[in-house]
């Protein structure tokens, strides 16, 4: 051994540091770490987003989201049953709409028998105890890939909101439990709440994508629903500027005022500061969306052997709890639920 190390050991043994605070004492064993742990991730925190395609017994891999597949409605039902067995409280559906069904106003969104409505009905019939959430926005159905009606290069706000109200009613009729407007039009939560109440859907919840940023991290999702290639321009005239924080609080305040039951911050990991600020300012049920790009980054590194995928998955999800989130939408939901169960 080098001499310096010997000397250091000797003097440490002889006197040590004169400190009374030794935070490491609490970390010395697993039992103690468990006792002092401030935040935990449980299966109760999870919402599982699933992609729906046409057909039967069909499972189609998504290249940019390894481990995630598009599923036909019968397969969605099997996965919802699995989610219920694992104790996952809720699932959420996103459709891959055939090109031929897409048009400039997203009229397939208003088809009572579209893929999302089929999935909602089938899952509510087969697994009534699981919560079902559906996205309200036009982008899976529009030929230009935008969340609203596009006219002369601009997204029309109020005209779009009128369609979103119709879309919400159709999803509510199909039996959805939570309407999740992800479009970022102004005034849509209030309009949807009024529409739902008028039609007698007083108990259908609204989880507002309140602080949704114009983000590069949605790339793989747009692959998954087939809008990546179609998207004309970007979504920066309605989704938020990544440079803004206070504006997120304003968006949340408006959505709560308009009747949102819970709010969401999206993406997740790059916006943990926003989750914390929202939770502190409003104290309402606050959710994070660990979006497709976040999932893809972890999976890409894990599949290259660059990090431990399971540990990165759990650590990233726990971070949302620490930041103040009550729950997380995550493509990892079944995998992390299985892991939590195995370690329980
Ligand atoms: C559509 C919508 C998007 C996501 C959820 N709903 C994409 C977008 O706004 O372009 C992204 C989810 C993800 O990336 O996992 N309104």
From TrEMBL:
GO terms for molecular function: porphobilinogen synthase activity; zinc ion binding. It catalyses: 2 5-aminolevulinate = porphobilinogen + 2 H2O + H(+). The keyword Metal-binding applies. Mg(2+) binds at residue 251. It comes from the Bacteria. InterPro entries: ALAD, ALAD_AS, Aldolase_TIM. GO terms for cellular component: cytosol. CDD domains: ALAD_PBGS_aspartate_rich. Its EC number is 4.2.1.24. The active site is at 212 (schiff-base intermediate with substrate), 266 (schiff-base intermediate with substrate). Pathway: Porphyrin-containing compound metabolism; protoporphyrin-IX biosynthesis; coproporphyrinogen-III from 5-aminolevulinate: step 1/4. Pfam families: ALAD. GO terms for biological process: protoporphyrinogen IX biosynthetic process. Residues 7-16 have a biased composition (Basic and acidic residues). Keywords: Heme biosynthesis, Lyase, Magnesium, Metal-binding, Porphyrin biosynthesis. NCBIfam families: PRK09283.1. Belongs to the ALAD family. Homooctamer. This is Delta-aminolevulinic acid dehydratase. It comes from Methylobacterium soli. The lineage of its organism: Bacteria, Pseudomonadati, Pseudomonadota, Alphaproteobacteria, Hyphomicrobiales. The gene is hemB.
